């Protein structure tokens, strides 16, 4: 799966309340959640972004709540991948379960600016900044998580396991 | 070979002699928890998988507490999904409005979670049960759906950090202040992917409800779990309420820690986390003269009986300041009734505070005390993120219940000793 789009940059410790405020959690409908994606970090975000764009953020992206609504909102809004220096633990796990591509690369975060055109090869974890010509290598995905991805996500993996 | 308490509980649930940090294991789950925000997605995933029966009707706990009693039609629909699923699957631990409470106060109180357990919950504050000496951690709804089917979950064994609390705890300093002080030291990702083990003389003497408060906020430092070794205090708490046999684990003296930190509690004052991160921690005296519009006492962090006692003690004989709203939310029905019997609710009402039925409500900006633009609250809750309690331009200061009550009296952030 290859990913290509324009970058929107965010700072450190972007919490799940900024990604999808709790006032919208009376539904789990992806389309509804997508309308409020990143609203408390940037109220105009969903009107500015285009399908396929990427989020690039500093450390500890997705800290706070366990709400799966956060990666659902990002994915349903059309964001193709999130690159961060690090991810909060539960968000990282949820993103995998949701099939939202996420990559850890402090160098890429430092080297990419808002508005840059970036391309990602998910299989290799290579990140290409088309605007500057720079290339970065994301941290490898843990083997067990790769197995989950190959199986089509956690639920498909569980189904296969229980036969 | 030596292990930490976290490693021992994980090894036991993976039917292994030992486990090491970094290893991936499949572990048996004792209790799997979800609420009215997270269970609807878990139930949907469960159905999509083609599964028809849950692994065990006794090991799932469904608690409608976030937007319950139903705050609007959409919330009512979500709560109905839980109710219908609980009825269909004949779940033992479903709590209807009237019996329910804030999940992480309710499950220990009811003896559903016991020392030595492995608990996963689709709620980040599931780490609360570490106060009992259990391994517990928050996950997403899909992970819960998988556990509903298999009774198991996959986990990466975390490295452990040790926090040693020495010295003497001041009168107005409790578990909330100890954990805020810790988060202030290491930051909101200072324990990312790690176990936080709390120990030392101060912890050994710390009452159970304060221990639960400390473990509750491990997630606010990014921790996978917070844990305190069970002891005589744990045994006393578990006696008469534990519905399964507790198992007491303890770290070996030569177990390995990736970090060891010592805090001298002598002289430590109540702590306040300023907006908009729980790591922005200050001594309460540095917050003097910050005026407030609202005070909330409640939540899975500080809504237990001893928290209400502390708030009532400060409030007794005083009135809530003009133009300040004080909202008190006992975390469970039992706490509500005990507080009524002790006369605490009367103290709150006499002082001009509103007392609510149990709910998470305002803690996550749901309802029952939402902030307007530019308003400021002192809350005994756990997060002060942007927009957490209402308008994106409102502010939340986190404190212990005594500071919250004292602040309600004066209308600005106040050390309790100035009021009592």
Task: Describe the structure using short key phrases.
heterodimer; A: 163 residues; seven-stranded mixed sheet; 8 helices; 34% helix; B: 420 residues; alpha/beta; five-stranded parallel sheet; 14 helices; globular
What would your notes on this structure say?
In chain A, strands 4-3-2-1-5-6-7 form a 7-stranded mixed β-sheet. In chain A, strand 2 (54-57), helix 4 (69-77) and strand 3 form a beta-alpha-beta unit. With 163 residues, chain A is of the alpha/beta class. In chain A, helix 4 packs across helix 5 (89-98) and helix 7 (143-151) packs across helix 8. Chain A has helices at 16-19, 30-34, 45-48, 69-77, 89-98, 106-111, 143-151, 154-162; strands at 2-10, 54-57, 81-84, 102-104, 117-121, 126-129, 135-137. Chain A contains 8 helices and 7 strands, in the order βαααβαβαβαβββαα. The longest helix of chain A has 10 residues, at 89-98. With 420 residues, chain B is an alpha/beta fold. Chain B has 14 helices and 18 strands. Chain B has helices spanning 5-13, 39-48, 73-89, 103-109, 141-150, 175-186, 201-204, 208-216, 232-238, 299-302, 305-315, 333-341, 344-351, 401-410; strands at residues 24-28, 31-35, 60-63, 93-94, 118-121, 135-138, 152-156, 160-166, 195-199, 225-227, 259-264, 271-273, 281-283, 294-297, 325-328, 354-355, 376-379, 395-398. In chain B, the strands form 5 sheets. Chain B has a 5-stranded parallel β-sheet with strand order 4-3-2-5-6. A 5-stranded parallel β-sheet of chain B has the order 16-15-14-17-18, covered by helices on one side. In chain B, a hairpin with a 7-residue loop joins strand 12 (271-273) and strand 13 (281-283). The model of chain B has no long low-confidence stretch (mean pLDDT 98). Classes of the chains: A alpha/beta (163), B alpha/beta (420). At the A-B interface, helix 5 and helix 8 of A face helix 2, helix 3 and helix 5 of B.
């Amino acid at each position: 799966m290859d990913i290509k789009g324009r970058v929107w940059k965010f700072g450190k410790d972007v919490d799940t309340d900024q990604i999808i405020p709790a006032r919208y959690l009376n539904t789990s409908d992806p389309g509804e959640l997508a309308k409020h994606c990143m609203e408390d970090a940037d109220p105009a975000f969903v009107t500015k972004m285009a399908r396929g764009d990427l989020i690039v953020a500093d450390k500890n992206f997705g800290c706070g709540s366990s709400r799966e609504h956060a990666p659902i909102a990002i994915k349903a809004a059309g964001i193709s991948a999130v690159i961060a220096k690090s991810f909060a633990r539960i968000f990282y796990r949820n993103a995998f379960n949701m099939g939202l591509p996420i990559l850890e690369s402090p160098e890429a975060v430092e080297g990419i600016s808002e508005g840059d055109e970036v391309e990602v090869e998910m299989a290799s974890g290579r990140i290409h900044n088309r605007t500057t010509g720079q290339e970065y290598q994301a941290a490898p995905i843990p083997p067990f998580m790769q197995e989950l991805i190959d199986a089509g996500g956690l639920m498909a993996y569980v189904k296969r396991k229980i036969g | 070979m030596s292990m930490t308490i976290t490693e021992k509980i994980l090894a036991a649930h993976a039917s292994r002699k030992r486990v090491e940090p970094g290893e991936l294991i499949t572990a048996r789950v004792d209790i799997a928890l979800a609420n009215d925000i997270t269970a609807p997605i878990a139930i949907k995933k469960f159905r999509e998988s083609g599964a028809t029966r849950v692994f065990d009707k006794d090991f799932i706990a469904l608690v409608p507490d976030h937007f319950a009693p139903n705050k609007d039609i959409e919330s009512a629909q979500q709560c109905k999904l839980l109710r219908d699923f609980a009825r269909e699957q004949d779940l033992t631990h479903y709590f209807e409005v009237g019996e329910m409470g804030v999940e992480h106060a309710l499950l220990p109180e009811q003896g559903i979670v016991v020392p030595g357990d492995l608990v996963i919950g689709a709620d980040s504050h599931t780490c609360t049960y570490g106060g009992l000496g259990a391994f517990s951690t928050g996950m997403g709804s899909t992970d819960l759906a998988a556990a509903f089917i298999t009774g198991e979950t996959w986990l990466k064994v975390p490295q452990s950090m040790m926090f040693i609390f020495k010295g003497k705890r001041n009168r107005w300093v409790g578990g909330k202040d100890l954990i805020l002080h810790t988060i202030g030291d290491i930051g909101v990702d200072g324990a990312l992917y790690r176990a936080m083990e709390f120990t030392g003389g101060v912890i050994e003497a710390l009452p159970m409800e304060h221990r639960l408060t400390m473990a509750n906020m491990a997630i606010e430092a990014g921790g996978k779990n917070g844990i305190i070794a069970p002891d005589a205090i744990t045994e006393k708490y578990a006696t008469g309420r534990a519905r399964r046999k507790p198992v007491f684990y303890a770290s070996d003296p030569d177990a390995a820690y990736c970090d060891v930190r010592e805090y001298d509690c002598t002289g430590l004052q109540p702590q306040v986390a300023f907006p908009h991160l729980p790591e922005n921690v200050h001594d309460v005296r540095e917050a003097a003269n910050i005026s407030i519009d609202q005070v909330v006492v409640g939540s899975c962090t500080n809504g237990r009986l001893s928290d209400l006692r502390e708030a009532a003690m400060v409030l007794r004989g005083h009135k809530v300041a003009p133009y300040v709203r004080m909202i008190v939310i006992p975390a469970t029905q039992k706490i509500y009734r005990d507080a009524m019997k002790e006369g605490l609710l009367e103290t709150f009402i006499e002082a001009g505070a509103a007392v609510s039925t149990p709910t998470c409500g305002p803690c996550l900006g749901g309802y029952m005390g939402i902030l307007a633009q530019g308003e400021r609250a002192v809350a005994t809750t756990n997060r002060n993120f942007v927009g957490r309690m209402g308008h994106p331009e409102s502010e939340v200061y986190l404190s212990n219940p005594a500071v919250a009550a004292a602040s309600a009296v004066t209308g600005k952030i106040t050390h309790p000793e100035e009021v009592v």
